């Protein structure tokens, strides 16, 4: 009897002690999950800020490029008038004016290529931002238990 009582007491003590350890493990897992979620959100914010800074830099470069193109356009119109004899060319000879005009055209083409590259980079940034938002939305949808989701939620998750 004594051994049976000790056995039952010790087994009930073990059960009592194992439950807190399970809750402790659950708490630890929950803390770890929350910490991971927080770190993930911070990384997402950092990536968004990087994309924002890059987009702002691209916007500034595009504005500078546009100003440079306007300046070249004005200079080109004046040079064409001089070549046609509509304006006073001063001491410039025709060969020198043609050389300047060809250099102007080359510079303008170079600026147009650079503008195209910047627009492609800007489009890539928009796509990366869109992808990031979709990934975040998907994580939020997947965090909800499937039993709590209705058909619309499941379809939206599948679409994402």
From TrEMBL:
<dbReference type="InterPro" id="IPR022735">
    <property type="entry name" value="bMERB_dom"/>
</dbReference>
<dbReference type="Pfam" id="PF12130">
    <property type="entry name" value="bMERB_dom"/>
</dbReference>
<feature type="compositionally biased region" description="Basic residues">
    <location>
        <begin position="22"/>
        <end position="33"/>
    </location>
</feature>
<feature type="domain" description="BMERB">
    <location>
        <begin position="45"/>
        <end position="160"/>
    </location>
</feature>
<feature type="compositionally biased region" description="Polar residues">
    <location>
        <begin position="1"/>
        <end position="11"/>
    </location>
</feature>
<dbReference type="InterPro" id="IPR050540">
    <property type="entry name" value="F-actin_Monoox_Mical"/>
</dbReference>
<protein>
    <submittedName>
        <fullName>MICLK protein</fullName>
    </submittedName>
</protein>
<feature type="region of interest" description="Disordered">
    <location>
        <begin position="1"/>
        <end position="33"/>
    </location>
</feature>
